Amino acid sequence: MHEEPRVTVLRLGHRPGRDERMTTHVGLTARALGADGVVLANAARNQADTVVDITDRFGGPFDVSSTDEPRKLIRDFEGRLVHLTMYGEPVQEVEADVREAHAEGPLLVVVGAEKVPFEVYEHADWNVGVTNQPHSEVASLAVFLDRLFEGRELDREWDDPDRVVVPQETGKRVVDPDDE
Ligand code: SAM
Description:
two-stranded antiparallel sheet; 6 helices; 37% helix; methyltransferase; EC 2.1.1.206
């Protein structure tokens, strides 16, 4: 799946002191469910470190960066832009169009924390609702990525992990692949 055009997630509106875990979980969910990288806007440095640390331990590739100019990133992005919002068009109605566009070029998937500037709605090629009910950026990102990749992300393999979880019916087993 990683020969496909890139999918980058942009996390907007991080509020220090309030959104730490959610921002970290946006990054981890983006990585686990098939995106190629996350960009964290505005002072989310510790959260970036956590996602880099997980990538180091559990494998990559996955790019983590931050920006103080998210609006510029949105304006200058060379590809199509998806904004996840409860006010958007139902994901089940637009997913085929988004998949078709992704076959042709990169996608930027934007999620918010608090109120997202109207400019983002205007710049988006698709404002996408995962239901039109309020819930969370982590949940909407997970469902959206799974629809985009049609489940292929669940079988992904990782490069250079220090540790690999061996699925168990009961209990936990984590191995160092170099010891196997
Ligand atoms: N009123 C906000 C909105 O625009 O969706 C809700 C803010 S919510 C706490 C934070 C983020 O979660 C939103 O910016 C959006 O990215 C995501 N989100 C929440 N509910 C969603 C839904 N039903 N569909 C898609 N994304 C959603």
